[in-house]
Design goal:
Structural class: alpha+beta
Largest sheet: 6 strands, mixed
Number of helices: 4
CATH topology of the domain at 43-149: Beta Polymerase, domain 2
Shape: elongated
Order of helices and strands: HEEHEEEHHE
Radius of gyration: 27 Å
CATH class of the domain at 43-149: Alpha Beta
Strand order of the largest sheet: 3-4-5-2-1-6
């Protein structure tokens, strides 16, 4: 009898496992810090705030106001506030601002409150626009919150 030959069964080759690398978490966005009493000029943000205010004024926004919150807020340099009579007007004002700025390639970082509601927020980074119905504007009283901020009424 002949000796048995070793079996030639193919062993399933296991592909080398991919080395799991630990992903580094994204660093949180650095907050702007302001030296006490130091206000940094930002002409691009000022021009953007003025443009948003003009569009809102043209859309029959009421009490359009630009607040200069440089050195007072870490999230924006300018806050634009306007109000409308009803939901449709507030939504139309938000759409007009968005359309006007998108034509030049400027897109909001985020938008809140669209659809049925009485408040729309458009965040363009250094400029934040708050569009309210009248009763919501009185309730939230952002002008009172930023009472010490320089302001400019438009329209």
């Amino acid at each position: 009898m002949a000796p048995k030959k070793p079996s030639k069964k193919k062993l399933k080759s296991k592909a080398p496992r991919r080395k799991q690398t630990s992903r580094k978490p994204k660093a949180p966005k650095a907050r702007r810090t302001f030296p006490p009493g130091k206000i940094i000029d930002n002409p691009q943000a000022k021009a953007l705030a003025a443009r948003i205010a003009r569009v809102l004024s043209d859309m029959k926004g009421q009490d359009v106001m630009v607040l200069d919150v440089r050195g007072k807020a870490s999230y924006a340099d300018y806050v634009v506030i306007a109000s409308g009579d009803n939901e449709r007007l507030v939504s139309a004002m938000a759409d007009a601002v968005d359309d006007s700025l998108r034509a030049d390639g400027i897109r909001p970082l985020s938008t809140e409150g669209g659809g049925p509601g009485n408040w729309v927020l458009l965040d363009y980074g250094d400029v934040v626009a708050h569009l309210f119905q009248q009763d919501a504007r009185v309730f939230y009283d952002l002008e009172g919150l930023w009472a010490d901020a320089p302001r400019e009424r438009v329209g």
